[in-house]
Amino acid sequence: MTRKDDVPGVESALYRRGLGPVAGVDEAGRGACAGPLVVAAVILGPKIPAALSGLDDSKKLSAARREALFDVIREKALSWSVVQIEPETIDVEGVHHHNIAGMRRAVAGLDARPGYVLTDGFAVEGFDAPSLAVVGGDAAVPSISAASVLAKVTRDRFMVDLDTRFPGYGLAGHKGYGTAAHQDALARLGPSPQHRMSYANVQRAAALAAARGRGEADERRGS
What we know:
Blueprint: H1 10-16, E1 22-28, E2 37-43, H2 63-76, E3 79-85, H3 87-93, H4 95-108, E4 116-120, E5 131-134, H5 137-140, H6 142-165, H7 171-174, H8 180-189, H9 200-222
Parallel strand pairs: 1-4, 4-5
Antiparallel strand pairs: 1-2, 2-3
Helix pairs in contact: 2-6, 3-4, 8-9
């Protein structure tokens, strides 16, 4: 694993040593309790286009800047791939399992076979190429930053659409993360089909909704 202090230049160093093309991989939605996990892989090539000079960790960019970079990345990257894992799939084997599996799928979906894969934060095995985990890579390694942007914008757009299908939860605002407003909505409405039922807070909300439903049914029978 590469330490954060060693990050600058790691991608360009791989190219100089003839180990490219280099793919960066990152995900969005790992910590959410509703909506999909989205994983992206990007190959930018040895020369970063000037239009992508502002790349950074997607969470540090404004929504408008992410949207602008999203289109440029898809136009200028040598190859890119996005994978979406739905909540019911996450519930089967857990988010970490599907995060790793999604990274492998995203890299396998690239048009060009990478010579090296860089992941953000933790090591991942099973790529058809050597790989390296880079702490803080989403903020310092261009291909990982690009993957971070593709994953987040794809997921954010999906969550805005979900908000129209499942109103009342505020999904367009908090994007499925466990904010106080989201927890309040869960307590009032119970989980939607897009909530991750294996998560403890969602299970608690489901139990509360079921208990409330039984109480209301008892009241109707008694009236």
